[in-house]
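Researcher: Quick test of sequence recovery. Tokens follow.
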């Protein structure tokens, strides 16, 4: 009687998992043991082609070690993997963003991980577009003197924002036909890392090519030291400690 109840309960569980819209993968020892139809569709493959495949194959190279550690902690310590956002690569070559949660459990007498993936690509695209708009609006070019404007940078410069600034600032600069000098102020930037150094070098070169002399202000000593460690030379870049000092310099010139 008890055996019949367990079998019925197991069949019901499988039916629920198979019918859910949530993409569900069961894996152990980094090998896929089970996928439901939703997961097969998400990954762009047939279910039978996924069984036995290495589960880490769907993750970008730079994420494999982090995901492997997360799986190992689940298998060896029973730690539930918190909900994270992660890019994955489908078997038909698409790069998509998912929410990923991992739950350790026993599957056919083996320690296994039940991973649930939810496609959030559309939501992330909307977020990126909104952030792009915010960045554009929050990066004004402020005229202060004849031929001189100030760009006050605020927040964090990550890869996406650096690319957006490098694409949009030259267009804004070209529209300012009488602009000869521009102060780019970094005092409101939170992160002072390799990305910022790379951005400084690129934006300085772009401004010069457009015939505008850039003056960088608000660069902290630790950033200059980090540039030296990276082997980058900032000596050729015109800098001043503050916007106030840069303005005083132009007024006295």
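Model:
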């Amino acid at each position: 009687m008890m055996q019949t109840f367990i079998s019925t309960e197991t069949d019901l569980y499988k039916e629920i998992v198979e019918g859910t819209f949530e993409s569900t993968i069961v894996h152990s020892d980094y090998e896929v043991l089970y996928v439901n139809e939703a997961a097969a569709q998400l990954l762009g493959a047939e279910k039978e082609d996924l069984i036995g495949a290495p589960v880490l194959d769907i993750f970008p190279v730079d994420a494999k070690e982090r995901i492997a550690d997360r799986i190992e902690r689940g298998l060896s310590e029973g730690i539930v993997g918190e909900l994270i956002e992660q890019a994955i690569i489908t078997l038909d070559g698409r790069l998509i963003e998912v929410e990923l949660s991992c739950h350790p459990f026993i599957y056919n007498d083996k320690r296994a991980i039940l991973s649930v993936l939810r496609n959030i690509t559309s939501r992330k695209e909307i977020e990126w577009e909104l952030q792009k708009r915010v960045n554009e609006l929050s990066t004004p070019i402020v005229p202060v003197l004849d031929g001189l404007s100030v760009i006050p940078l605020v927040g964090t410069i990550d890869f996406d924002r650096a690319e957006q600034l490098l694409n949009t600032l030259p267009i804004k600069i070209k529209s300012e036909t009488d602009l000869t000098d521009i102060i780019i102020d970094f005092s409101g930037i939170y992160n002072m890392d390799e990305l910022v150094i790379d951005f400084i070098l690129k934006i300085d070169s772009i401004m010069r090519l457009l015939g505008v002399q850039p003056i960088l202000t608000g660069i902290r000593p630790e950033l200059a030291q980090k540039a030296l460690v990276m082997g980058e030379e900032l000596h050729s870049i015109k800098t001043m400690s503050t916007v106030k000092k840069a303005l005083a310099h132009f007024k006295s010139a």
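Residues 2-19 form the longest helix (18 residues).
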